[in-house]
């Protein structure tokens, strides 16, 4: 009897154990499925932030910006006059022009961050809609670097990433975004260096600028606006910054930056050019075709001269004073004055000719055509982030 009882007990117990363990296993496997589905969902949500490539189109048409003069007593001053253009993904655009020509104003108008005293008319549309910075689609980097001197590069990015990336992202995913950003911006060698401040030796100017840009690309905005990203940098650091921006553009983003006077190497990296003078368009189109446009307008770029130097030499009125002083001294010393457009025309004349020429040129016609074509594309709307 006892043997029978114990065998029965053992059988019962072993059956219970099997049932229990099967139940546990089932529960565990159910939990695992739930967990992995949740993880997959989270991953797909975060990969939207990490890898999303969209069709994006930025167009602006007849953008005019005006400020009141004399404390608003009627008179106004035009900062931009009927600017039209478009920017496409995978391309980097330079807004160039002499100081005060309206580069920052145009950038502000496109990014929707004009000062309250500036009145703007015309349209700026991103995928057919007006947008402002602040929803994650658009980022804007100013000339100044606002960074904490006591944090390292990695710490700076980590703080910002945890504050700005979606809460659905796991720690590992956030870390991978940070690592990718560090690689993309070439900050690997200084990732553990402190930013530095007035009493703490830290990053170089170029590294600081690349870190500032890194903070903006963490959230993978569709459009990046940068105001003079190379100002104050030596030529190698400036080239590094523009190279990094070009790589960001090639990731399916639109990159538009104002730049004062790029070196030949840097100019060659730009796909598109918007050349301004006194708020007027001198040229808008492919950067490499600008030399052809200037030649067609009667102001060919001398061989072996940096095109951007030539363009600014033609439209920067500051050269007039220098040219007239030089001419006077040549005449006084009875030296024959060389005859070229630089001595035959004032920059005001050259500017007027170029503005006129551009308005009736194929470049201007093509720009309008392209803007109309873009308006007809049924682009998907962008997510606000
Ligand atoms: N909010 C404003 N109120 C009044 N005038 C303004 C305002 N913003 C810009 N301006 C004027 O508009 C002109 C163009 O300024 P903007 O900053 O766009 O030029 P820029 O080409 O970027 O010059 P820089 O290369 O020197 O930065 C300047 O004469 C400037 O004083």
From TrEMBL:
Signal peptide: none annotated. It is found in: Membrane. It is a multi-pass membrane protein. Residues 1-13 have a biased composition (Acidic residues). Residues 29-43 have a biased composition (Basic and acidic residues). Residues 58-303 form the ABC transporter domain. InterPro entries: AAA+_ATPase, ABC_transporter-like_ATP-bd, ABC_transporter-like_CS, ABCG_dom, P-loop_NTPase, Plant_ABCG. GO terms for molecular function: ABC-type transporter activity; ATP binding; ATP hydrolysis activity. Keywords: ATP-binding, Membrane, Nucleotide-binding, Transmembrane, Transmembrane helix, Transport. Residues 1-47 are annotated as: Disordered. It comes from the Eukaryota. GO terms for cellular component: membrane. Coiled coil: none annotated. Belongs to the ABC transporter superfamily. ABCG family. Eye pigment precursor importer (TC 3.A.1.204) subfamily. This is ABC transporter domain-containing protein. It comes from Populus deltoides (Eastern poplar).
């Amino acid at each position: 009897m006892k043997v029978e009882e114990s065998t029965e007990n053992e059988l019962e117990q072993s059956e219970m154990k099997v049932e229990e363990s099967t139940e546990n296993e089932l529960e565990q496997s159910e939990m695992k499925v739930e967990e992995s589905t949740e993880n997959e969902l989270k991953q797909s949500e975060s990969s939207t932030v990490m890898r999303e490539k969209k069709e994006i189109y930025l167009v602006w048409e007849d953008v005019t910006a005006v400020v009141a003069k004399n404390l608003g007593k009627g008179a106004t001053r035009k900062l931009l006059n009927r600017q039209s253009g478009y920017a496409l993904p995978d391309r980097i655009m330079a807004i160039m022009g002499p100081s005060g020509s309206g580069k920052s104003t145009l950038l502000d108008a496109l990014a929707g961050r004009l000062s309250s005293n500036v009145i703007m008319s015309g349209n700026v549309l991103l995928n057919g809609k007006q947008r402002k910075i602040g929803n994650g689609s658009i980022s804007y980097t100013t000339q100044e670097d606002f960074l904490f001197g006591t944090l390292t590069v990695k710490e700076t990015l980590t703080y910002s990433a945890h504050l700005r990336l979606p809460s659905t992202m796991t720690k590992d995913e956030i870390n991978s975004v940070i690592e990718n950003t560090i690689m993309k911006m070439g900050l690997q060698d200084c990732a553990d260096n402190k930013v530095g401040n007035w009493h703490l030796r830290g990053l170089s100017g170029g590294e600081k600028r690349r870190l500032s840009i890194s903070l903006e690309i963490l959230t993978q905005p569709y459009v990046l606006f940068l105001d003079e990203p190379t100002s104050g940098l030596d030529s190698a650091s400036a080239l590094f910054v523009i190279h990094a921006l070009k790589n960001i553009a090639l990731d399916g983003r639109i990159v538009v930056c104002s730049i004062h006077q790029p070196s030949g190497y840097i100019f060659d990296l730009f796909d598109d050019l918007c050349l301004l003078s006194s708020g007027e368009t001198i040229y808008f189109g492919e950067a490499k075709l600008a030399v052809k446009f200037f030649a067609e307008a009667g102001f060919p770029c001398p061989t072996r001269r940096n095109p951007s130097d030539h363009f600014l030499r033609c439209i920067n009125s500051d050269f007039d004073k220098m040219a007239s002083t030089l001419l006077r001294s040549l005449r006084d010393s009875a030296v024959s004055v060389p005859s070229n457009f630089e001595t035959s025309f004032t920059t005001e004349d050259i500017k007027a000719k170029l503005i006129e020429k551009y308005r009736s040129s194929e470049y201007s016609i093509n720009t309008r055509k392209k803007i109309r074509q873009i308006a007809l594309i049924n682009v998907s709307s962008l997510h606000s982030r």
